Amino acid sequence: MTQSTGAAQAGADAPILACPQCHTRVRVPAERLDQQPRCPRCKADVLPGQPFELDAAGLPAHIEKSGFPVLVDFWAEWCGPCQMMAPVLEQLAGRRRAALQLAKVNTDAEQALAARYGIRSIPTLILFKDGRERARQSGALPAAALERWLDSALSG
After folding, report:
1. Under a CB-based contact definition with an 8 Å cutoff, are residues 122 and 84 in contact?
2. How is domain 3-155 classified at the CATH fold level?
3. For each successive 10 residues of the chain (156 residues), what is the average pLDDT?
4. Which of 19, 22, 42, 82 does the annotation list as catalytic?
């Protein structure tokens, strides 16, 4: 194996994630994903194990150049089904900490962002990977159905 091939292979095993706090892109070796990697810039957990808020300025860093899955929950504070989904998503973020980031976008505060992604009902979950939308689900789901949907979306 040549040195450049080894470097390319190492890059493939080290996904790029964005820090939930400062949005710095961080390359994390796959074997370290379950070891609470920290951002070299702000020292925040890159995989916090809980949903984090995103706005129009931060969302691109997380979805456009990241090979790591990012599940975005488009929600609003007044939405009953959104409130019902919140604890389910918190549990999911903890269980899948080393496998995906879970972000929340408040559609009342980020109306232009909601319009850009065609959000017509809330909650709407969009799974992004490799800079593309991979799957979308509108409406509240029980935990087991959410897990099945996510497994299917990640395997496709």
Report:
1. no
2. Glutaredoxin (3.40.30)
3. 39 83 93 93 96 95 89 98 96 95 97 97 96 95 96 90
4. 82
